[in-house]
Write the structure tokens for this entry.
Amino acid sequence: MSNKTAPEFESPDDRLEQRPDHGAIMNENRARQAVPLGRMRYVLAISLALVIVGFAALYILMRF
């Protein structure tokens, strides 16, 4: 077994990029702690639209 630790348990110095003019700078993915949304944005938008249409249809049907 190797003694390699998970990235979240590394020392902060290992995760930071040292720049003499700005000090320690994190890379973009580390600072954001996420990945770009990609298709998830479309899944969320379509599902939200379907829920709104469903509630509107239910409202119209319940009025009669």
About this structure: The chain has a mean pLDDT of 75. The longest strand covers residues 17-19. Residues 7-62 form one domain. Residues 40-62 form the longest helix (23 residues).
